[in-house]
Here is the input.
Amino acid sequence: MSKTQPGYVLLEDGSRFDGLLCGSLEGGVGEVVFNTAMTGYQEAVTDPSYAGQIITFTYPMIGNYGVSDRAMESGRAHARGVIMREARNHADAATAEGGWLDWLEANGVWAITGVNTRALVRHIRDRGAMRGGIFPASTGVDEARATIEAEPSMAGSDFASQVTPEAPIEHDGKGPHVVALDTGIKASIVNQFLERDCRVTLLPCQTPAGEVMGRDPDLLFLANGPGDPAAVEAVTATVRELIGRKPMVGICLGHQLLSRAVGLETFKLPFGHRGSNHPVKDLETGVIEITSQNHGFAVVGPDGGGTIENDEPVRWQTDHGEAVLSHINLYDRTVEGLRLPEARAMTVQHHPEAGPGPRDARHLFDRFLDLAKEG
Amino acid sequence: MVIGSGPVVIGQAAEFDYSGVQACKVLLEEGYEVVLVNSNPATIMTDPEFATRTYVEPLLPGPVAQIIEKERPDALLPTLGGQTALNLAMDLSADGTLEKYGVELIGANREAIIRGEDREVFRQVMNDAGIRIPWSITVESVEQACKELDEGDASLPAIIRPAFTMGGQGGGIAETREELEQVVAKGIAASPIGQVLVEESVIGWGEFELEVMRDRNDNVVIICSIENVDPMGVHTGDSITVAPAQSLTDPVYQSLRDIAIAVIREVGVETGGSNVQFAVNPADGEIVVIEMNPRVSRSSALASKATGFPIAKMAAKLAVGYALEEIPNDITRATPASFEPTIDYVVTKIPRFAFEKFPGADEKLSTYMQSVGEVMSIGRTFRESFAKALDSRELDSRPEVPETDEALLEAIATPTPGRIDLVLAAFDRGLSVEQVHEQTKIDPWFLRELALLASEGDGTGGLERIYNSVDTCAAEFEAATPYYYSSHEPEGSPSEIRRGEKPSVVILGAGPNRIGQGIEFDYCCVHAAMTARECGRDAVMVNCNPETVSTDYDTSDRLYFEPLTMDHVLAVCEQEKPEGVIVMFGGQTPLKLAEGLKEAGIPLLGTPVEAIDAAEDRGKFGALIDRLGIKPPPYGTALSAAEAEEIAAGIGYPLLVRPSFVLGGRAMEICYSNEDLKAYLDRHVKASPEHPLLLDRFLENAIEVDVDALCDGEEVFVAGIMQHVEEAGVHSGDSACVIPPMSIGQEMIDEIKAATSAIALELGVVGLINIQYAVAAGELYVIEANPRASRTVPFVSKAIGIPLAKVATRIMLGQKIADQNLPEFTGDHVSVKEAVLPFSRFQGADSVLGPEMKSTGEVIGIGPDFPTAFGKAQAAAGVALPEAGTVFISVTDTDKAAATQLAAQLHDLGFSILATGGTAQAISRMGTPVEAIKKIAEGSPHVVDMIEERRCDLVINTPTGSGARADGYEIRSAAIRHGIPSVTTLTGASAAVRAMSARANGSSEVKSLQELHGS
Here is the structure.
């Protein structure tokens, strides 16, 4: 292992977990969340949806197979920090282009190892995701606490505008033209469209509706992304203008933005869904898929509650006709996907593109494109 | 109907008791009537309470068809009893039995079993689905294999796998043409359909397994990934394995996952668990599928214990029509079973071997399984987990480390049981990861961790021991099931133990299965847990064997998956503050800890430590029985080699020699002369004050008797008197035995009972005691007494219908025998226990029975008379006594008279007789037609040629003393190679002939345990 020095994780409620700083040693604050996947650490840290967050990996051995360019979900690290039980800097795997700790350091990601991550996760599970930070042992607890207090809470935070590209990005393709409002899109999503011969244009998320339509899309795509969906009202307003004009699809934050755009509400989950093992039932086929998940907010059900009791395609009345529940999370029975027939729109909360995680739901991209074909 | 896996053999062990018990419990809970068939008395699954009807009958088409005819089951669930159950179900399907009685195969149908098991069909299915598997050719003769090689359709090195065998038995690796010829020949002989697969060698690639489940709605989930530390080339059962996979990137892991799901769908396993094995090329990530098992397996038991997801239980529910989403996750209770477990710890499995029991056997590990047991450990980091697993092995000795670096590197190039210790030694010596990788091809990820383990220890320094739960979900949800492991975390970390108000009883398990300490002890521990709960205590189990029922979290109130070392056991006691600890049921493993626990102030339940010492210390025990007027065979204890020879001269030969404090007869031998004794002293540990050597007069031609009894300190209940079929000198664990005794008079039985009572009371036994006696010339001799649960407890319990370990536990918790209304055994059936031997697994080892235990498991045969019961036991043990054909007889001079009688009987039954020199003469003189055949020294065609040509159907060959061993060894080895039953004792032969004669007179009816014992 490269450089280390004693450090600790402090949560806003005062809970402290000791460890050793590694990677980038400076430390800092963010929302502390946990991810239960056993593989895909580099994909997670480079997923823009983790902007503003510190990821606790529940799997203890992190860094086992090094890092590689192919595992990048975006151009850089987005998670602010990582909390681990036993970090590794091995680079023996055939695909490894470097060691994980070296990479964390080079990318300015704060990291701490040797932490009882299980105790930390149980704490967050019971009390909810909260602000916290990684600090060198030399930083006093009072000072650390003050730094945490100064950090705005995740509810109400707009991170999407920080991770959106400054200028449009275009990928050539012979097939349908997918135009995305890029609130922090993952490379794996783009790749799924490209593999299906799509032409893909990623637009800064502030792009006005008129300009979006000016790109002549066959399919409007609302990307994943970080933060509170309620905090990006400007994007929601754009979506509201666009909805119904062309077939529209959303993933994760995109699912939440579309829901909000048609008048549905979102709420903050106690500790979110982050991992590679959540069972999601596709109510259109009855098939259960194991999904990749990364979200802290969810869409409120038609009866105003956070969960849906039965495996049935319940309906909401929205500003654009009916929304029909298409997917449900079998872990906590929250909304995992919607179809809005009148608006020619469909969304999912989970990540069918995988990267990291299981590929059970990748076929949804075919369903997205069928929607585009129907026009 | 549920079919079990039969006796514990290498490749098929206690894990099928675990899965079978889970299945039976589920089916009963769901309101089904369960008809269970399993010939293994030492299993929990054959306890009458786990089925509506329990048949301890041979797992052969004949007897099982008889049971089907009688019970008329609606369905047969064949996927939980290993390869045995699957093959049997296929036989019953092929011969029309299932169709005739309208029995539906559930779990996996005939087509799916064929697609998964028949290698040729599997290859087709995979090719059609575009899944890459190694090139392979099905071959049915050596000539064909050579032709393929010549024509370039095959290349070397190649792997040879026989069709329809378990644990890769009869397979191997061929690097040269000669090896190809040998291994193909052996494989064809081992395969029940005479077919082997010659396939591309991917030796040195990384080996991975995924455990997969599918339900009737076609939903598929992966329960666990497993990575082998030993790369391809070592059977996965013999490999050190780790869960989850450590070295795979997410994309490669997801590819394995996708392929595993495709495989289970293509093979068409409708519901239940399967396991898919992969090889991954470390250089480029290329993936090939090696094989799949369309059933619950050893790996699935490991995966269940590793994740907390009970695969067999779920498989049984899926088989009767549930979907995964309809079943709650046992551990979280709040979430459904249609998910994939994720874990936040590292699991290590290390196999346990028994090569020391088989002198001459090649210790090189290969593609067929040779280990007899395994340990599993859980730790938060790889190093912590691995170090715990190394501790759990409980090895008597470590391999010798070669002196030079070159020799050490040379040694680790070959996979052997001790290689991992040598790898650690290499790192300890400063050799590099690159050097070790070059030799071993072990993935550098493991080697870097092992190097760190060697240089810095397990990484727990400065940390505090706490207990975490196994919860299937990495703490995302609250766990309801109390399944714990210890780990080390920074000071102040919380423990997750939820200890209620009830007093607890800590039961120490038996650790890894090994020869001499197997599933029988786990059976007793499980009974102790069940009884402690019934008696209002919290049952707390400590064990490290993933195969067993005892480590099912349903068995106890709290399960600690921990090494059975003093340190770990004391730490558990610190948590539990138990009412008492039970050390009497797990064999030597917990017994070794008794003294230390007592010194630490931990209360022990049952027989006091002093009694154990009084029974094991020759001097004390000698004085004790002397007081009681009971005599031992003349004996002595030597503290030096010179003293040993002196004592031997006083006692007289033949002598039984062994070190004190051993289980299963390790290093126990019969010496017929001073020369034998000297040779023994040279070979084994030198006698010394620290390691006393025990010498006993060996009573030739004595009848050996084993007794299991219960004692509450005031009263003794003699539960079972077992007469050994083999004469004294064969280890009791390897000898067939019968209840009730067949040739011991009532007077002697009364004398045995009286002696047993006197010894148990005098020792102060509170619980179980086992005493071995020899009856020679009308005199009773005590050989040894063990005041603890013996290997025969489950057999006796099933023979007489009284669960001895449960009664013993109640006694330990304060009840009296008088309170328990134990019925005197009055049944008129005869029960025979037969040992199952693993010789065919160990190339080069002799198959002769002796005072050192060599069997891996046992079967029971129950019948109205001895010959019938013995015949059933033989059949169940896989010794297919022939109905007609040729018998070869070769015996020593002292056995010749009796052998001529047997020959005459066999002749009357219609057999032809073959014999060598003297034996042939003796038989011929008595007027029985016999064909004489040459001994090896007399030149070809000789006896071994005859066996190689499979010209005989049964071999009776008795070795004695030191002479004529070489011929006998060759004869027995050849018989084993060709699967010809071979009997090595005259009493065994006599019983076999009686059984063959009884069978010729027609088969008997089958009776369930419930019918036999009137419950």
Remarks:
- Chain B has 33 helices and 38 strands.
- The longest helix of chain B spans residues 250-267.
- The radius of gyration of chain B is 28 Å.
- Chain B touches chain A through 52 residues (CB under 8 Å).
